[in-house]
Amino acid sequence: MARIWIDGREYEVDPRRNLLEVALEQGIDLPYFCWHPAMGSVGACRQCAVTQFRDENDTQGRVVMACMTPCADNSRFAVEHADAVEMREAVIELLMTNHPHDCPVCEEGGQCHLQDMTVMTGHNYRRYRYTKRTHRNQDLGPFIGHEMNRCIACYRCVRFYREYAGGTDLNVFGAHNHVYFGREADGTLESPFSGNLVEVCPTGVFTDKPYGESYTRKWDLQQAPSVCHHCAVGCNILPGERYGRIKRVENRYHGALNGYFLCDRGRYGYQYVNDEARPREATGRSAPGASEHALSADKAAQGLAAWIDAGRVIGIGSPRASLEANYALRELLGASNFYRGTREDAALDTLALSILAAGPARIASVRDIEQADAVLVLGEDLLQTSARIALAVRQSVRQRGFALADAAHVPRWQDHSVRLMAQTQNSPLYVLSAAPTGLDELARRCHRGRPEDLAQLAQAIVHQLDHAQPRAPGIDDDTLHLAHEIAEVLVAAERPLIIGGSSTGSAALLQAAANICIALHRRQRSPSIALLPAECNSYGSALLGGDDLDAALARIEAGEVDTLVVLENNLYRRLPAPRLDAALTRIQHLVVIDALATPLGAHAHLQLPAAAFAEADGTLVNFEGRAQRYFQVFVPQDAQRPASWRWLQRTAAVLGRDLGNTLDELTAACAASDPALAGIVAAAPGHDFRIAGQRIPRQPHRYSGRTAMNAARDIHEPQPPQDVDSPLAFSMEGARVGLPPAEIPIFWAPRWNSGQSLSKFQDEINGPLRGGDPGVRLIEPGQGGAYFDRPPRSEVRPLQTVWLYELFGSEELSARGAAIAERMPQPYVVLHPDTAAELGLADGDRHQWAAEGQQWEAQLRVDPGLPVGIAGIPRGMPGMPTLGVGAVIGVAGAGA
Amino acid sequence: MTARQSPPQRPLTARIRPEHEPFGLADYERHGGFQGLRAALKMGPQDVTGLVKSAGLRGRGGAGFPTGVKWGLVPMGPDAPKQKYIVANGDEMEPGTFKDRLLLEGDPLQFIEGMIIGGYAIGASIGYVFLRAEYVLAAERLKAAIAECHARKLLGRNILGSGFDFDLYLHTSAGRYICGEETALLNSLEGKRAVPRSKPPFPATAGLFGKPTVVNNIETLCNVPHIVHYGADWYAELSSGTTGSKDGGTKLYGASGKVKHPGCWELPMGTTVREIVDDHAGGMREGLKLRGFLPGGASTDFLTAEHLDVPMDYEHIAQAGSRMGTGLLIVLDDRTPLMAMLRNLETFFARESCGWCTPCRDGLPWTERILADFEAGRARASDIELLRQQTRLLGPGRTFCPHAPGAMEPLQSALKYFPDDFSAAVGRDGAGG
Ligand SMILES: Cc1cc2nc3c(=O)[nH]c(=O)nc-3n(C[C@H](O)[C@H](O)[C@H](O)COP(=O)(O)O)c2cc1C
Ligand code: SF4
Ligand code: SF4
Ligand code: SF4
Ligand code: FES
Questions:
Q1: Whole-prediction pTM value?
Q2: Could A46 and B364 be called an inter-chain contact, meaning their C-beta atoms sit closer than 8 Å?
């Protein structure tokens, strides 16, 4: 530790930190722009000026930049020294010579770091009397607005976009006070992390475009802490609502997960919530195809209750529904009548959970991934399936650079110096996948193959690590060398990490990940593991258990079922349409509870509209096995959309059964049902939690118009809705300080109106939220189980498919929004050029394809990165059929 | 090979014949060329560095850092990184400075020899010359000389049978002043934006492509062959024996402005300003008086007629309150409007700001505009204080690199020595304030 003085006060601090971080942690309001907690210091803006003194006798001192100054022992600083105060004010004055002062029409206004810093430095009178420079703005696509005149040239955008996230199409052009931050030409920003520019930019240059199109000031948004539902990472988000519409999603800091950044699927995937076509009220249908008639909520619940009472009923849960909803359905219908994913998905999720639970690997958080010094990716295309993880892997390869910097005594926060020392030297990353991935450019080596082939390579790695384990016969020399190399690198690493998942549909690959960890453990290493399931609550649904869809279909096909209740699950995405269509003809009653209008809903005899994520509370279990609670943001008006679990509670009540009346009751019952789920209650404080007797308000202290916003309907101010499920209130009144970390609805602090106020919610920059990062890990890895058997060998079947994924398109909910839809590719099939040539197909042609009794049209993409003989098809994309794992496809004929 | 010749008094320019092509290799060697290199290759690399250190050679690029000390900072020995670089700074965009051009156009082989010796001393196998874009003739002659050296195995593998390999590449700049700042130069050479780097780490430990690198000015390197050939004592004598200066060797001095014969001359270090202006530049043009001068390029503080007898070396110019800089004088006469000169300088500096840090990027254009008001006679009284404040806020330590502080030097010294020019330019149109 080092002893330093700031304005005469003594502090004990870590000498490896810089003064700006330390000052912020100590609660000192020191302005900054170019420094970013996740990106370190570059000394560009000169805003963080303080005075440093040689010793206690030095009264003059000299001005230094806090962000570039280490806290060496015995350093003496003054924030309040006249020279530093003058400098900080002057920097703002200089920035303002070109800033347009258009706050009233700027989307950043009211949550603008530049506004905050301006007020903080005291600059308020303009002496500059000349013209300002002006720029032309660019159209950057559906996500990001551009207003370059507001730029203060802090360089954060390009540092994030290029250096942190690896994008290439945003850059800084020109020189002196004409520096321009944009693209070479107008066009959609390509990075899957472009949305973070909105939060990274301290002014209103890069703004959230959909938000800007239907704009509301920060202080007029109703917000609640939530969790992204668009993949299994479980990034924490802050959705903001007004007039019954989600206006935007912002990052909600989580020290172990998303940190400061989201992917664009997570930021813009909310738009389906605002879809006018979503079901608004319960509807019934006398027969398939007959017209719908509206039902009151009571009638609907009674109808469902009657069918359940009649028996011969089964239910299908969902990996995108909360634990509570799945649990409620299971309880209502009985565990033996409760089903979940496809045979493959259910088996894979259960297998993954058992691997995590058996150990010996530690389960890696996103933060752990960033710090791994050797990474092996087994089969996943992370940028498309779990983008935030890919961003973390991108940071992990910097470990080599950090080591070089440490050796040269260059502090890690001195970002450009560390990058200079590292150059292109990365710590090892190996990517084994079916097709090229977005991380290949960082990888030491990549290997392509079918999942079966990758599992063989993985087995060879296991053998290299532990010769007692069988070889992978029939593997070629190159691949064997690669296995050797990977094994050596993993053994040599201090923090080796294996990343796998279920996206390939291969159990062998998951087992291989486990085997590598076991082998490393036997070599006295302590590996970490991350296994990424497909959906936001895949692990929660697997923890609850239930047989798979094949078993459900078998019962239906055997004529054992009269009523099928489907919870938040569009089965057409899970089962081949012909089989599902046939099964639906065998039942009397299809009940669909969902937030969306889906093709399945079109068949329903009873459709119960459910809340979307922002209209309900619940608990999800992410890829780490962390249970996280998300909270209702708003109460939809003119719509009967209770949480899906509340429909089930009501139905239970009709049947005289007790599923409770609140979320807490359901959560508690779910937790009590299985020791593995016991932890979920603690994921967030219960609904009776109060701070000095007060609830936590969802509306900011400056929320305006609440007496007027309903005036067109009713001139009286309506009673605010009551919340029986959480300690949050649909109100402006309540407690705003000392909030538990899982219940922070907004980041805002005195003098810090922007999201940069976050440092006021942390004890340590980049550390957990004060009080600990939200959520509860449900899985405590054991000491390690036995090896899985060597994976079976399998011959290539011609045009056997491998699954590919699209960040924009493969996930059901997000794909429904207009902004994401604009980024979605058309259906396609990928073949190696040799395979295409053999079939006489040309790149770019459209064809009718056929498999498993289905036909569809898709464009051919030729990619030499794909192994010969197999076909890559994007999974879950609109316009693509649902096929089984490794289905074989063929060309049905030339298309339109 | 020729016999050892008597040591020259003007070693840097001895082989330069104005209006002629430079010497080819054979002539160069006949006139003492590559003797320094031959001597160096017989010494240990660190001994070469030691020799340069004891000769007292200081960098001619502007900062005057002792060259031998700089070389000594480069990691040597078996644990040192395999790849190191030496980079010659030939950006020379400093207004009023044109010495490196003369050296490269007149005697490119001398520079190449210095570069090879420098590379040998620090263990660099690759050298780059970063050359100002407009120096087309210098580029041509340098390329020809490099080709000739390659053909004669003076560049490439196993130079003169010594086992030392050295390759030299010419890189012509795209034309930004900031590329002369050594770390911006390295970024530019790497294909990145020409923005300075933060130090530490210094280039000696992490320079070009992150490898140990020495950046030296062209003139600095041209001194090296002679030091090695004739020795440190001889070198120190060149000035101590004539002007008595502590800084060794000769220096290319020059003068621009309204002197009779603007030009560039090699003179002993420590020659007085008066001698340069009166004897070599022929004094002021008819009817003009010297009012002040920038001693070493546009980014140095004004000195005045009172300082004419100051010897031009690092110590004395610093004592007088300015910087030696590049050693080429820009002379201000009594008729040229000071405000126009200052505005012109700040237009240059504002345009050449790299745009990285706020005070420079946004402060210089403001300064320029205020000065334009002074030039046009429409400044306000408060503008004088505003300018003073700018010189403080754009001063050393306040900005990311020395560009803006350099830009403030002529302004702050003009405010000090010529305050009346400023007050006289206030409010002629009646604008108060
Ligand atoms: C704005 C700026 C411009 C510079 N331009 C040049 C230049 O054109 N040539 C040069 O040799 N040094 C220039 N320098 C100085 C270099 O940064 C560096 O100190 C020098 O090249 C080192 O060589 P030396 O030690 O041989 O003098 C410049 C410095 C600054 C701050
Ligand atoms: S666009 Fe925003 S982030 Fe980028 S340099 Fe300008 S102010 Fe900074
Ligand atoms: S990585 Fe996944 S959880 Fe995180 S923001 Fe993206 S889609 Fe949402
Ligand atoms: S002072 Fe700042 S803006 Fe100016 S050239 Fe140096 S780094 Fe660039
Ligand atoms: S925050 Fe320190 S210089 Fe920008």
A1: 0.97
A2: no
